[in-house]
Amino acid sequence: MTTEFSIVNGLGVTAPQGDLMASTAGAFREQFVSWFTTAGVRNVVVDLSLVAFLDSAGLGVLIALLKRVSENGGDLALAGLQKKARMVLEITRTHRIFEIYETVEEATRNVK
Amino acid sequence: MKALIDLSASLRWAAPLAPVPWPLLPVGDRPWLEYALEACAGLKITEVRLLLDEGAFEIESWCGNGERWGLAIDYGFLRQETTLTAWLRRNPARWNDGLFVLRGPVFLRKTGACAMELPAAGSAWQAVDDDAGTLALLSRDHDALQRWMADDKLPPDSWAMPCCAPVALTSLRDYFALNMELVDGAIERYLTPGYYAKDGAYLGYNVQVPPATELHAPLIVGNDCRFAPLCNIGPRVAIGNNVLVDTGSQLRNCVVLNGTYIGRQLELDGRIINGARLIDPEDGTVLDIADPWLLAAVHHDQNPGRWLRHGLAIAVAALMVMVQVVPWLVLYAALRLSGQGCYRRRQVYRRTAGTASGWQFEAHPPSGLLPRLFRAFSFDRFPALLAVITGQLRLCGQERLWVPEDNLLRDELPLYSPGVFSQADTSPADVLAPATARRAAALYTIHHDSLAENVRLFWRALVFRFVDAWALDDRR
Asked: Which DSSP state fits B188?
């Protein structure tokens, strides 16, 4: 799994690519933590437009990231969810704990 | 009067509901075919012919001789190039007493609690849906039947049976809606008096519901189901047999097919769940969840022959691993050092659902001495043998399908049970088989799955791979 990190108007944007599963979630988490500790951003948008599927391990990582960002006083939002990833979030009820936006642009406008 | 039920259609929309053949798909927790057979019994028909294709073995096993409906069922096959009328014309006199025909997934929807009726002598009722390829025909009129058989043309729809109208199922949405209609109460019209549950909750045998779990009518629950505590089930849920729902999960407006495990704290609303497969009936989105913490298929295999086969396969794989491990290490090290071959990690379709990482051996060039040795003794399949021991692969099964080049073939297969050795190993390695041949080989494996067939395939594959490895450079 490859992950892109960027900062847009002081907002961190991370875009993982590929399936967020048990085999890839750990690497994504490590990359994110290492970037987040040095990037100096408070709020983060996770762009999931290139993630076709995520399983319970992937969900666990997203929740861990949310916890990490919240502990620093920031917010974490999800954007660009594909239908299948959204279905997983819905059945696990995790769509209720994340702010979810259709696009990264919409997320960057709303996450302050 | 006789009945003919044509089950030979191949329904693309029903593919995500595999491995159940479409005639046995549950509708209100009973197979669709049971409604059709009960309609025959209701019309006082005793002789029924089923025309089969895919899933013939399962359908025949389930129906038997039809004794339990008071019917005499026999079976036939309809070749793809043969039309139904051409098939009927082979013995036109047989249908002189009248004929009831159902072609494709037609559900005889009852709109009231009245008995099935026959048309008056000399008249015919028919309902045709050309787009869906379905037909319901009921006639005692010999001339009308002969005309239809002769020119394959029916007059416009004229179905006039009171309280009963044929409905074609053409999509997952139709299938889901019909299930919900039955759960909402329409099921009462199809049940034998005495099975009617006044509160709209139909529970099968051996259903375990702990006190902390709530069931909300209307709902239908099949046999041998278990609910863990704190579940909230219903309203509008049709659950099949052998379904396990783990702690704290909520189900509403769902159809759950047989043999499904639903993990903890899940919330399912407006979905069809088939093992590890989650389906949105509105737009047909199919999500294979390769995560047994969320959804999984429950294997309820009581066939001792199959267990014996799996046990033998694991034993043979373990023996091969023990014999091969040292030479494999030596040869693979030599291959890597000489740069003539290596394993490449790729995405491969899993047996249950979704994809996983798999190792595929690549030789450069394949005709070198070391790669040929590696292939001749099937050392290239060594990692796959380990997967047999862990239960992820079979020793003999279908060809493994890789992502993305085999996506289309995977979609076409109603069942996928990959093995280390397959029919593909009995044809030359450098000759790319056409897609139709690969599909045929995969389907052949499904329909000829037996111990004798597996033993035959295993030895043929080992011998052919040995011979083919030395022939590789001769052909190039």
From this structure: G
Helix, strand and coil in chain B, % to nearest 5? 35, 25, 40
pLDDT in tens, A65-78: 999 999 999 999 99
Cis peptide before B371 (omega within 30 of 0): no
Q: Residue B448 — φ and ψ, nearest 5°?
A: -125, 50
Per DSSP, the three-state class of A7 is strand
Angstrom distance (rounded) from CA B155 to CA A49: 52
Distance CA A102, CA A45 (A): 12
Q: Are B294 and B350 in contact (CB under 8 A)?
A: no
The residue among A26, A76, A74 whose CA lies nearest residue A46 is A76
Distances (CA, A) of A40 to A72, A74, A109, B64, B107: 10, 11, 19, 71, 63
- Nearest CA to CA, how far is B318 from chain A (Å)? 26
Residue B268: closest CA among chain A residues belongs to which residue? A91
Cβ within 8 Å, pair A90-B354? no
Query: Which ipTM value was assigned to this complex?
Result: 0.87
The reported pTM is: 0.78
Residue type, B349: Y
Least CB–CB distance from B293: residue in A56, A83, A93: A56
Q: Are A26 and A11 in contact (CB under 8 A)?
A: no
CA dihedral B185, B186, B192, B194 (to 10 degrees): 20
- Report which residue type is found at B421: F
**CA atoms within a 13 Å half-sphere pointing along the CA-CB vector of A19:** 20
pLDDT digits (tens, 9 = 90+) for A37-58: 998 889 999 999 999 888 889 9
Chain A's closest residue to B354, CA to CA, is A53
- Distance separating the N- and C-terminal Cα atoms of chain A: 29
Q: Is B266 within 8 Å of A88 when comparing Cβ atoms?
A: no
